[in-house]
Amino acid sequence: MATTHTRSAARLMMAPSVILLFAWMIVPLGMTIYFSFLRYNLLMPGMEEFTGFLNYSFFLSDPAFFDALTNTLLLVGGVLAITIIGGIAFALLLDQPIFGQGIVRILVIAPFFVMPTVSALVWKNMFMNPVNGLLAWIARSLGFQPVDFLASVPLLSVIIIVAWQWLPFATLIMLTALQSLDEEQKEAAEMDGAGFVSRFIYIVLPHMARAITVVILIETIFLLSVFAEILVTTNGGPGTQSTNLTYLVYAQALLQFDIGGASAGGIVAVILANIVAIFLVRLIGKNLEA
Amino acid sequence: MTLKTILLGAVSALALSGIASAETLTIATVNNGDMIRMQKLTDDFKAKNPGIDVQWVTLEENVLRQRVTTDVATKSGQYDIMTIGIYEAPIWGKQGWLAPLDKLSADARYDANDLLPPIRSGLTVNGKLYAAPFYGESSMVMYRKDLFDKAGLKMPDAPTWTFIADAARKITDKSTETYGICLRGKAGWGENMAFLTATANSFGARWFDENWKPQFDQPEWKNTLDFYVKLMKDAGPPGASSNGFNENLALFQTGKCGMWIDATVAASFVTNPKESKVADKVGFALAPDNGLGKRGNWLWSWNLAIPAGSKKVEAAEKFIAWATSKDYLNLVAEKEGWANVPPGTRTSLYQNAEYQKAASFAKMTLDSINSADPKKPSVKPVPYEGVQYVAIPEFQGIGTAVGQQFSAALAGQVTVDQALQSAQQLTEREMKKAGYPKK
Amino acid sequence: MARKVSTRRKLVMSAIAWTLGILIFFPILWTVLTSFKSEGDAIASPPVFLFFHWTTENYAEVQSRSDYVLHFWNSVVMSLGSTLLGLVIAIPAAWAMAFSPTRRTKDVLMWMLSTKMMPPVGALIPIYLIFRDVGLLDTRIGLVVVLTLINLPIIVWMLYTYFKEIPGEILEAARMDGASLAKEIVYVLTPMAIPGIASTLLLNIILAWNEAFWTLNLTTSKAAPLTTFIASYSSPEGLFYAKLSAASTMAIAPILILGWFSQKQLVRGLTFGAVK
């Protein structure tokens, strides 16, 4: 029962956020759209000219574009799958009575605080390096040929690094959701003779639906623009095997300094991101309203 | 001369010194060993130039390049001195983005004529010097004398590729993690493409013909890439496609490579007993050739330059004069020993008997640098300058994209033919987009 | 009535949980250990875990090369500043959305979140040019502004989901008592909202602290935070695992410690209203 008074007050209160974000979106976006129609290379000043859709047609017909699109989806999907499944598993484990639960939780939560650049550097040099890395040493001492992660499975390596950073986040949310599950409900189900699996499917999972939705939403926003991890580890390669859209736009903007091409790429990425956003709204609409 | 002008002069001199005393130079540089040493020796500069303070921005090479290029191209004026490569210097000089170092060129004490000719010419546009070299390098073969003796081989001073390939295969013993040859494989125009472009020159290949048509569909490139991929498969370390300079340096220093063809500056690292397990066993030779009259060695230098429009040109010139002078070399020699002075910029250094004694690699370095010719890099005529790069603004992007294809070929993800075909296509696309051939 | 759990089961579960926990934490532990090794020990094969010659020379070297305190302070200022500024702007908006929702509230929220999906590099040059023209390059204020705007959608959304959990009846009651809008916020809402605001604050400090694209590209020296500090240790000429580890440890330690100490508050807000 909002009165007109409170409604206009509400508008007033939302105004700063909305106006600021709108400006933050529209000014760069406007300039980016404008640049995307220019032949504009930072290294060749004074040559700017209107080129119509040339930048778009070059970006979209770039053989790397399709790879980047696939890689972006694989990266987001892969990390989501690992963190959600892993997160639920960890949450179930941590929800059990165990010794030193607090300390284990501190250990598990830690990767979330690490800068992406740092975690990429650490993984690349100290773990995945095929000669000096720890994983190579483990493989050799077990009598295997060390896997050259960044060259033979580049995208998977990036997914592992990113998933490591986001697993704590998923775990924490799942754990909180799990802990709020009514103990009596669980016990009642146990009394009824429900096994672990059916208890999990019929009671635990539905209860966690909202938590899972939230994890998907937040992680997707950040995962669409994963960048530092790729730059530090594989530089998008070998070939274009670990290039995602963000990295492709980066290569245009800061390697080729082709601002026109990068702007076109940026706009394409925005459009794609909004398609994803629409899907997410649908998802949220169903799960978060309830 | 009236009292008024004298007074005016005095006042302006005062004002100038007033400004000078508050002057802080912001210097962007790479996080390489020689630059870090320079950073640590800053106090010597400050003592000699009271009133000038120095603030360092030390960044990893790729980040540095992005930051200074964005800054100079948008004329943002965040840096007073920039560390740039010999690739950027002529391009930026032509654009009018750099202040010419006329004072240095004219200064007899600085002695610009002492700078090594190939490097000086690479930094000069229309007779004006636009950047001063801090250190210079070419590439050469570094090899393990002990492993060569064991295999009964003898490295000539000027080996051929055939000899190198045979020797590499003979030395390789994967059971003891000894790999015959370590070469760059990590994608990047300054990483694997530096090595491969220089090597391709010795195989008679070139990036573009006289009409700027990409040449990856020609047999010379196929020979180059075939040779490289096969050799690395037989005699290279695992994971070679992600090895750049650093990774190979670590491999060589820990005794895992029989040969390593890379930058001449690495010589002082691999012969330093503090860092290298094989310091006393390293020999040097010129980069190999294929009997076509060109060797596969490159030419690079890191240089200091002043962005045009800077308000602190005078102080900045003082700093550059300090950092690239003969006195600086003496200063480093005095504090850290002759083997650690930044190499490859001055003829006088190579005539210095003490340096020759301390640095076993001195002669080979000088010969390598002097045999590189950025004006005529390949066997066939080319429309561009640059040995291991093409001095056009588009090259960073194209070079890196081609480098990714070749890196994928080395990793075995695509065949040599596929990699060359993709390289040809993408280069054609980018060149078309950039509007080549230009009249 | 607590469930009975056999000690044996508890032991087994504990063993599994501890093993996994240590595995997850291991990369960080290894980095910290490596930072105390000499460069030789750092790449030794087989690796040495604890019995090496402990040294702090890497930290001394890092400190002599860069002004850690300055970078650290810049990180503190920009993460705290941007979060506080963001909260000031976001609290009224989230309040309005939670208590006077309209049909379009959800759309506005989703639109806000979607502004986060644009690849930042696409907007770099426009922002860079604007910053150059208004003199915000390499200033703390500039960074605070950008980071505020980047994280604002998340802040609004977190607060919104949290505020929504506050029962409306309490507000109704307050209104009945004749409380004005201002009083309603100060005396009724704020106390109930403090835990949510606290966790939003914490999460955003972490996000801002770790932001590595804008902070790296819009600063040079005076306002450069720890992300720039790290950029001078990654891939140098030569392999320096120990120094890299020392710099990494210095960059992540403050936020890691803050995170650990405040994890209870953090978790509370992280649920985004996902838990009833």
From TrEMBL, chain A:
Signal peptide start and end residues: none
Compartments where found: Cell membrane
Any single GO CC term annotated in Swiss-Prot or TrEMBL for this entry: plasma membrane
GO BP annotations listed: transmembrane transport
Gene3D superfamilies assigned: MetI-like (1.10.3720.10)
Keywords of the record: Cell membrane, Membrane, Transmembrane, Transmembrane helix, Transport
Major localization class: membrane
Membrane topology: Multi-pass membrane protein
A Pfam family this chain is assigned to: BPD_transp_1
TM ranges: 12-37, 73-94, 106-123, 155-178, 208-228, 264-284
InterPro entries reported in the protein's UniProt record: MetI-like (IPR000515), MetI-like_sf (IPR035906)
The ABC transmembrane type-1 domain, residue ranges: 69-280
Family to which the UniProt record says this protein belongs: Belongs to the binding-protein-dependent transport system permease family.
Listed PANTHER family: BLR7065 PROTEIN, INTEGRAL MEMBRANE SUGAR TRANSPORT PROTEIN
UniProt-recorded name of the protein: Sugar ABC transporter permease
Protein source organism: Rhizobium straminoryzae
TrEMBL record, chain B:
CDD domains assigned: PBP2_TMBP_like (cd13585)
Major subcellular site: periplasm
Keywords: Periplasm, Signal
Pfam families (UniProt xref): SBP_bac_1 (PF01547)
Presence of keyword Signal: yes
Location of this chain's protein in the cell: Periplasm
Domain of life of the source: Bacteria
One GO cellular component, as annotated: periplasmic space
InterPro entries listed in its UniProt record: Bact_solute-bd_prot1, SBP
Residue ranges the record marks as coiled coil: none
Signal sequence extent: 1-22
Family, as annotated: Belongs to the bacterial solute-binding protein 1 family.
PANTHER family linked: ARABINOSE-BINDING PROTEIN-RELATED, DIACETYLCHITOBIOSE BINDING PROTEIN DASA
Protein name: Sugar ABC transporter substrate-binding protein
Organism: Rhizobium straminoryzae
Organism taxonomic ancestry: Bacteria, Pseudomonadati, Pseudomonadota, Alphaproteobacteria, Hyphomicrobiales
From TrEMBL, chain C:
The keyword Transmembrane helix belongs to this UniProt entry's keyword annotation: yes
Domain ABC transmembrane type-1: 72-262
Membrane topology designation: Multi-pass membrane protein
Listed Gene3D superfamilies: MetI-like
GO terms, biological process: transmembrane transport
Keywords for the protein's UniProt record, in alphabetical order: Cell membrane, Membrane, Transmembrane, Transmembrane helix, Transport
InterPro entries linked: BP-dep_ABC_trans_perm (IPR050901), MetI-like (IPR000515), MetI-like_sf (IPR035906)
Intracellular or extracellular location(s): Cell membrane
Superkingdom of origin organism: Bacteria
CDD domains (UniProt xref): TM_PBP2
Any single Gene Ontology cellular-component annotation: plasma membrane
Transmembrane segments: 12-33, 72-96, 108-131, 143-163, 184-209, 240-261
Keyword Cell division: no
PANTHER family hit by this protein: INNER MEMBRANE ABC TRANSPORTER PERMEASE PROTEIN YCJP, MALTOSE TRANSPORT SYSTEM PERMEASE-RELATED
Family, per entry: Belongs to the binding-protein-dependent transport system permease family.
The name this protein goes by in its record: Carbohydrate ABC transporter permease
Taxonomic lineage of the native organism: Bacteria, Pseudomonadati, Pseudomonadota, Alphaproteobacteria, Hyphomicrobiales
